[in-house]
Amino acid sequence: MIVETINLTRVYRLGSSEIRALRGVSLGVEEGTFTTILGPSGSGKSTLLHLIGLLDRPTSGRVLFRGRDTSLLSDGERRRLRLRSIGFIFQTFNLLPTLTALENVELPMALARVSPQEQRRRAIRLLEEVGLGDRLHHRPSKLSVGEMQRVAVARALANGPSLIIADEPTGELDSKTGEEVLRLLRGLCEERGVTVLMATHDERAARLSDRTYRLLDGVLQG
Question: Distance of CA 153 to CAs 91, 94, 216, Å?
Answer without folding.
Answer: 11, 11, 27
